[in-house]
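re: the backbone from monday

yeah here it is again, tokenized this time
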């Protein structure tokens, strides 16, 4: 069994995957870290490119796009590492990140998940550790209007942990799935990642289940990776719908209350989804009218 298996799930990632894989080639020892790319039926030639240009990568071709969580689970099934790293295809790094994270997990057997600092391409900090979402999160998340208008408000600061200097190792509620690591035994104990989360909130759910099982979730800024956030403001209707489906699934698993509160929450999530889809459609139509 190798030390680390790094799993990268791709979907139409041809434009970014080379930089990610070159990071592994330059900064990790081949005998200590295997790399598995799970391609979720890309239509842009990602799988063929990886197969031809990176023969040292273990390629798993999915016959359909069953979602990020399903791809990650498939990658673990094809792996042999004692420790598993999940890395987004739009991540690059400039040192042996996996060795540092493995060292932390070996030294702290009570840690179920550990994640490095995330940076934007220009080197600025990306807020990648958060408090668990609750009822107010819809109003105070990273992209919410209130957070944009009043970024220093208390609720946004608490959820985004923006008051934390991000320079010291710290136990947190959850960390971004863009780059993280956990022992295989923790993955097995928790039953893998919940494939009901097609996209979004799968990392929050996994970290919450790790906490519930008695493990720590740790932010370790001793190492950093660069991450290009892939979902833009102009997200497609499919992306918007999947984001809200994941909100509802997370709520049902971890936050359910009375039947009345559940019904109001479901209506609120559905209404927000419908509004954002409608706004996106109007913007798209306006763009076509302008000839954008």
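seq for it, each position gets an aa:
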């Amino acid at each position: 069994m190798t030390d680390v298996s790094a799993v990268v799930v791709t979907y139409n990632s041809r434009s970014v995957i080379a930089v990610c894989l070159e990071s592994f080639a330059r900064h990790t020892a081949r005998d200590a870290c295997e790399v598995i790319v799970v391609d979720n039926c890309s239509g842009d030639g990602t799988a063929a490119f990886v197969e031809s240009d990176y023969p040292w990568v273990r390629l798993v071709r999915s016959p359909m796009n069953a979602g990020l969580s399903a791809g990650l689970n498939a990658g673990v099934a094809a792996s042999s590492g004692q420790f598993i790293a999940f890395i987004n295809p739009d991540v690059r790094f400039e040192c042996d990140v996996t060795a540092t994270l493995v060292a932390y997990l070996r030294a702290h057997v009570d840690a179920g998940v550990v994640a490095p600092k995330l940076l934007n391409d220009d080197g600025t900090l990306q807020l990648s550790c958060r408090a668990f979402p609750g009822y107010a999160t819809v109003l105070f998340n990273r992209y919410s209007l209130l957070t944009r208008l009043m970024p220093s408000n208390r609720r946004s600061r608490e959820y985004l942990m923006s008051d934390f200097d991000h320079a010291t190792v710290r136990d947190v509620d959850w960390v971004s799935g863009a780059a993280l690591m956990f022992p295989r035994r923790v993955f097995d104990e928790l039953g893998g990642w919940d494939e009901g989360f097609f996209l979004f909130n799968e990392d929050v759910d996994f970290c919450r289940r790790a906490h519930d099982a008695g493990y720590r979730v740790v932010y370790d800024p001793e190492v950093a990776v660069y991450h290009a956030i892939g979902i833009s403001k102009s997200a497609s209707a499919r992306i918007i719908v999947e984001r809200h489906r994941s909100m509802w699934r997370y709520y049902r698993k971890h936050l359910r209350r009375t039947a009345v509160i559940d019904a109001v929450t479901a209506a609120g999530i559905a209404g927000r989804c419908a509004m954002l889809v409608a706004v996106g459609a109007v913007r798209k139509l306006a763009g076509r009218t302008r000839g954008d």
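Residues 4-227 form a domain with the Spore Coat Polysaccharide Biosynthesis Protein SpsA; Chain A fold (CATH 3.90.550.10). The chain has a mean pLDDT of 91.
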